[in-house]
Specification:
This protein is of the alpha+beta class. The protein has two helices and three strands, in the order ααβββ. A hairpin with a 6-residue loop joins strand 1 and strand 2. It is globular, with a radius of gyration of 16 Å.
Length: 98
Amino acid sequence: MPPDSAEDCDLRVESWISTGGDMISPLQDLHTFISALMGGKLRAAPLLSEMCTPHPKAGYGLGVMVQDAGEHGGPVITHNGGMAGHAALMYSTTAARP
């Protein structure tokens, strides 16, 4: 397949790698999800706060990575996934939290 062409991945089954590749989402769906999550539309404020509080040694909250973006950046919430040939990354600041 030429490098500038697209392939319909909806028919590919990538579940051989455990749960990796079990879901295919367009960029807009990832944006909708992380915006709703960080905007407080999917979890109550106390649960979202707990989710975004990193474990002191691991830097991992409950289902998301919590990274420090420095003095002027504050915390960044992120999650990624992928396997050979593709990857997905989501990043959000905590500023949108209720």
